[in-house]
Write a structure and sequence with these properties.
By secondary structure, the chain is α+β, with helices and mostly antiparallel strands.
């Protein structure tokens, strides 16, 4: 894009709103076409998750051809299920609306005709507007439908070094036999590097039947896929049964695909072997194979022939997902959603109004919310029936093009109780139900007045150049080993583990919200303790665990395992929390932690997701103490005030952005 147009771009940049689900910021911008470009105006929207210190990538979803697909193209960034995937991995979510002169979408499906330039220009603008400069160089996950799928595959050939993975739904490099008057599609053999990019091609079974209007488009899929697989590309092909060109349930496969591929491709920056931050190559031997004809899956061995008749599948779990999708067009969801959060209760004279926020179930979406008073179900909030696209009346649904069914107009997360005699805010609870009928844990209400006072409280900065104003060593001594540099408070590995070099707040805090960013080193162990007081000569308190989980508990999945492992974000040895949405970022990257200690209630958050929500006066909490190493102190952690400690455990840890506010009761 020419330099002279940059002022116009900036004038068209707009902060749209805060997401009703996560309080995350959304930005729009418009890119005018260059004089040598075939496309018309290109509009872009990006969703930035809150409490994500540094974005790790972009999930970009490109709409297909035609007015219908373009109409809600920007709303690809507003889809709450895809937002949950982005939140989990610390990614931005992006959608577009590209205008095609005379509705000839070939003006933008070939990226070199201007759409690639518009995409890159939009990222630069949105990076500046959002304050996330890293957007300009992070890698991408690309999803596209129909014409958007053609664009996606051609982008994989143009920018293989930037692409984590791609999911083209119904499209390859070009329909077979298509003639172009401007830029031409890439040839399957034109980029060796692209053969290292994971791509999952997907289309509806009916599309590849003789006489179908999309037959040539799908023949083009096989042309590029067959070439790539014959040359050992980590590519897969999924044929959607009982489907044509509509997306139907293909998001079930796409979201799981990206969820598995992202951690496999992104380097762990804390690991000594990953000093250069480049995308990792997928394993060439330790993976699974899926046969297209029989849909049989098995571990890869020495399969060398007829590779184009098989799919590369990352692991056993994803192999089962691929097989289920290809057989049934559906992948079962066996895990409940994460619970809602921020349930505000407003008490009026004759009624009580409830409002809350929630993430979608990443794998199957939201069917409804259930509302309870004193343990009794009193209501349910669902969506609007649509015979074609939402026959079950789910709260969340999508259309032909995999866009939110009603655009941004989701029903509000609000419920009014007209029979609330003698009910207190803490008597109300809300849960999320996914589309498999599985229900989340319950979240408890908080008085709206108390909530408002909390948000009005003023933050106090606890991390500045003179950090000794706020922190001290044990017994008031000057702390050893801590260094303040570039607005980061760091502890290098120290042989004297424990309290000798830990930092203690000089002030005592009761009823507070403490927010901090942390980066743990390779093999590291640290934590944030609070409500600290003397227990028979030992200075103890509840702990927000910080750990290199991958080194301490290799392969541990808190959402699936029945074993208890107190990983990052948990309430150490007392409460594992809710891990149906796991938002941890790996060691060597910044995470945002948040502790809310308010009366008998304790909450732990990580990267905008609430993990722990417990009350210290419950029998469950007291039993957890009896099972722990703190059992000799039955009232451990039940005091409401104490000092805060940043723990030195003999390994490298860094903190920044430490701030606290006292909560008004």
């Amino acid at each position: 894009m020419r330099q002279s147009r940059r002022k116009g771009w900036i004038e068209r940049l707009l902060l749209i709103l805060l997401s009703p689900l996560t309080q995350a910021a959304t930005f729009d911008c418009t890119i005018e076409p260059g004089s040598d470009h075939a496309i018309g105006k290109a509009h872009y929207r990006i969703w930035i998750p809150e409490e994500t210190p540094e974005l790790r990538g972009i999930i970009f979803r490109q709409h297909g051809c035609g007015q219908g697909a373009r109409k809600l193209g920007l709303e690809h960034a507003d889809d709450i299920q895809w937002q949950t995937l982005a939140q989990k991995h610390g990614f931005a979510l992006m959608g577009s609306q590209i205008w095609a002169p005379e509705e000839d979408c070939s003006t933008w499906t070939m990226p070199e005709d201007g759409s690639a330039n518009a995409f890159l220009s939009a990222i630069k603008l949105l990076a500046r507007a959002s304050g996330h400069a890293e957007l300009d160089h992070v890698p991408w996950c690309l999803w596209g439908h129909s014409g958007g799928a053609i664009w996606t595959v051609n982008m994989a050939y143009l920018f293989p070094e930037r692409i984590i993975a791609a999911f083209p739904r119904s499209g390859g490099l070009s329909p077979v036999g298509r003639k172009y008057t401007r830029s031409h599609p890439k040839r399957p053999d034109s980029s060796k590097a692209t053969l290292g990019v994971p791509i999952l091609f997907c289309y509806g079974k009916q599309e590849y039947q003789s006489g179908n209007r999309f037959y040539d488009l799908i023949a083009g899929v096989h042309e590029v896929f067959d070439y790539g697989r014959k040359h050992h590309a980590p590519w897969a092909l999924a044929v959607h049964p009982d489907s044509e060109h509509e997306n139907s349930q293909s998001r079930q496969l796409a979201i799981r695909f990206f969820d598995k591929i992202i951690p496999a491709r992104l380097s762990d920056p804390a690991h000594p072997e990953n000093k250069d931050q480049v995308l990792k190559t997928l394993p060439t031997k330790k993976h699974w194979i899926g046969l297209h004809e029989s849909l049989e899956t098995f571990e890869a061995s020495n399969l060398q022939s007829n590779l184009h008749e098989s799919s590369y599948l990352l692991n056993k779990t994803f192999a089962a997902d691929w097989q289920s999708f290809c057989q049934n067009g559906h992948i079962p969801d066996t895990s409940p959603p994460t619970r809602p959060h921020n349930l505000r209760v407003e008490q009026e004279q004759y009624r009580t109004k409830l409002q809350w926020n929630a993430y979608a179930d990443m794998e199957s979406g939201i069917q409804s919310f259930r509302i309870y008073r004193k343990g009794k179900l009193i209501g349910e909030i669902a969506g609007v029936l649509n015979r074609q696209w939402n026959p079950t009346g789910a709260y969340q649904a999508w259309n032909y093009s995999d866009q939110p069914l009603h655009g941004r107009e989701l029903l509000p997360m609000v419920f009014t109780d007209g029979n609330a005699a003698n009910a207190q805010p803490e008597d109300y609870q809300v849960s999320t139900v996914n589309k498999e009928g599985l229900e989340s844990r319950l979240t408890q209400g908080i008085n709206l007045v108390e909530w408002s006072l909390r948000n009005q409280s003023v933050w106090t900065n606890l991390s500045d150049a003179d950090f000794l104003t706020h922190w001290e060593g044990p017994d008031g001594h000057k702390p050893r080993g801590w260094k303040w540099e570039n607005e980061i408070l760091s502890m290098s590995p120290n042989k004297n583990k424990g309290s000798q070099t830990s930092l203690y707040s000089k002030e005592i805090y009761e009823n507070f919200e403490f927010q901090f960013q942390f980066r743990i080193g390779f093999g590291g162990n640290s934590g944030v303790k609070y409500r600290m007081q003397d227990y028979d000569g030992q200075f103890l308190g509840p702990e927000y665990q910080i750990l290199d989980d991958q080194q301490h508990y290799p392969g541990y999945n808190p959402a699936k395992s029945t074993e208890t492992r107190y990983i990052t974000g948990t309430l150490y040895v007392l409460d594992m929390g809710d891990w149906n949405l796991d938002p941890r970022h790996p060691p060597g990257t910044w995470n945002t932690g948040r502790i809310i200690s308010n009366g008998n209630r304790i909450e732990h958050w990580i990267n905008g997701v609430k993990i722990v929500d417990t009350s210290t006066h419950t029998e469950e909490f007291k039993q957890a103490i009896q099972r722990s190493k703190f059992k000799k102190w039955p009232h451990y952690g039940q005091n409401t005030e104490g000092r805060i400690m940043l723990q030195d455990h003999g390994t490298r840890v860094e903190f920044r952005g430490l701030k606290i506010k006292r909560l008004q009761k």
